[in-house]
Amino acid sequence: MTTVMHETSRPSGGFSNDDATAGRIFFGLLRFLAAEAITDELYGDLEAVLGEYGRPSLDDGAVIADRLREASTKLVEVVPRLIQPYPMDQQRGAMDQLFAVINLSAEQPTREQARGHLVRFASSILTLLDQMGEVAS
What is the pLDDT of residues 34-90, one digit of tens each? Predict the structure, then answer.
């Protein structure tokens, strides 16, 4: 199929290929990818685990852990490019440690360790969302 465009169908402002425009587009795409992981369901799962009345059963905990694993995988891929931590040295070390915790938390615990694992895993994701600030909203 061939599309014929009339000369007047071009955007009136033209196109921009400068670094500032590319940076804004890149940041917007990263926010979109992060938004795929940061859903109302994620916040519901965090509340179910960490909330005042949070004590999911082992079966519910396994389902929640699977959803947290899926979300953390997406976040770990996108977040390092999204966050500009300040001051760099201190915050970068904290971010590296946080990603290590998330990666370790993605492991499958034994049945006896499931509750503690789920709490640590949910806490590490919540800490990451806190560090993301308004990007996570």
Answer: 778 888 999 999 999 999 988 898 889 989 998 988 888 888 777 777 766 555 665
With vertex at residue 129, the alpha carbon angle to CA 134 and CA 19, rounded to the nearest 5 degrees, is: 50
Residue 99 pLDDT more than 70? yes
- The pTM assigned to this predicted structure is 0.70
Assess contact for 136 and 129: CB atoms under 8 A.
yes
Task: Tell me which residue has tokens 């396994």.
Answer: 62
Distances (CA, A) of 69 to 4, 80, 134: 47, 17, 22
Reading the block at residue 98, the tokens are 């946080």
Give the CA distances from residue 28 to residues 50, 61, 70, in Å, rounded to whole numbers and listed in that order: 30, 33, 21
Rounded to whole angstroms, the Cα distance separating 81 from 2 reads 38
Q: Indicate the residue type of 102.
A: I
Token pair 């799962």 is found at: 45
CB atoms within 10 A of CB 71: 22
Q: What percent of the chain has pLDDT over 70?
A: 68
